[in-house]
């Protein structure tokens, strides 16, 4: 782990990591990559959430109503912060760059499962549902072809949306928050 004790909060997180040109963070904290990662996390979260709800109702209209009622979403800040934690936890893995999308898919699906079960007070057998779905997610058996098609169909539009939302100021503010988090976890 990096030594964050001598940094000020105004020092850019990216600039700090760019001191080591081989550092994995250089690849992940450029605007297009940030937008790509947020887009993926958001889509995996929302698609997983929709699937969990559909499985409990087996009716599209009821699923849409329940999605509106629960009002669950992931902000770009939370998505990127969760992605940072994934990168931090896996930074020494030789295959981390290749596996990052699967790690994001797994994390977003688990977060959607947690949020759904926590917020849906009408869900019966919640403990059993969590254990079954968590096992499927961890074994990479949850995200099916239809869900993948949904992901691919919505990727470009969602990317364009986040490309407009994510500004340089947003990135800079998030870098400061991540740097503060990293200092706290040393």
Explain what the structure shows.
With 186 residues, the protein is mainly α. The chain has one domain (23-184). Helix content is 74%, strand content 0%. It contains nine helices and no strands. It has helices spanning 13-18, 25-28, 31-57, 60-70, 76-90, 96-119, 126-138, 145-165, 168-184. Helix 3 (31-57) packs across helix 4, helix 3 (31-57) packs across helix 5 and helix 3 (31-57) packs across helix 8 (145-165). The chain is globular and about 40 Å long. The protein starts with 12 loop residues before the first helix and ends with a helix. Residues 1-22 have low confidence and may be disordered.
- Terminus-to-terminus distance: 8 Å
* SSE string, helices as H and strands as E: HHHHHHHHH
SS field, number of helical segments: 9
Q: How many structural domains?
A: 1
* Largest β-sheet summary: none
In terms of quaternary structure, what is this?
Answer: single chain
Helix content: over 70%
How do the strands and helices of this protein lay out in sequence?
Elements: H1 13-18, H2 25-28, H3 31-57, H4 60-70, H5 76-90, H6 96-119, H7 126-138, H8 145-165, H9 168-184
Short description:
The chain is mostly helical and 186 residues long. It has nine helices and no strands.
């Amino acid at each position: 782990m990096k030594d964050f004790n001598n940094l000020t909060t105004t020092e850019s997180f990216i600039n700090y990591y760019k001191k080591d040109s081989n550092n994995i963070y250089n690849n992940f904290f450029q605007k297009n990559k940030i937008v790509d990662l947020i887009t993926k996390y958001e889509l995996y979260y929302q698609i997983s959430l929709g699937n969990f709800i559909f499985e409990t109702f087996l009716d599209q209209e009821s699923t849409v109503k329940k999605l509106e009622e629960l009002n669950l979403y992931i902000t770009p800040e939370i998505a990127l912060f969760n992605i940072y934690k994934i990168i931090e936890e896996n930074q020494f893995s030789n295959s981390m760059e290749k596996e990052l999308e699967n790690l994001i898919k797994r994390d977003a699906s688990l977060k959607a499962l947690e949020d759904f079960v926590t917020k849906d007070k009408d869900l019966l057998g919640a403990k059993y549902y969590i254990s079954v779905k968590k096992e499927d997610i961890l074994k990479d058996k949850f995200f099916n072809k239809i869900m993948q098609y949904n992901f691919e169909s919505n990727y470009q539009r969602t990317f364009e949306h986040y490309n407009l939302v994510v500004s340089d100021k947003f990135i800079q503010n998030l870098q400061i928050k991540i740097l503060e988090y990293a200092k706290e976890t040393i």
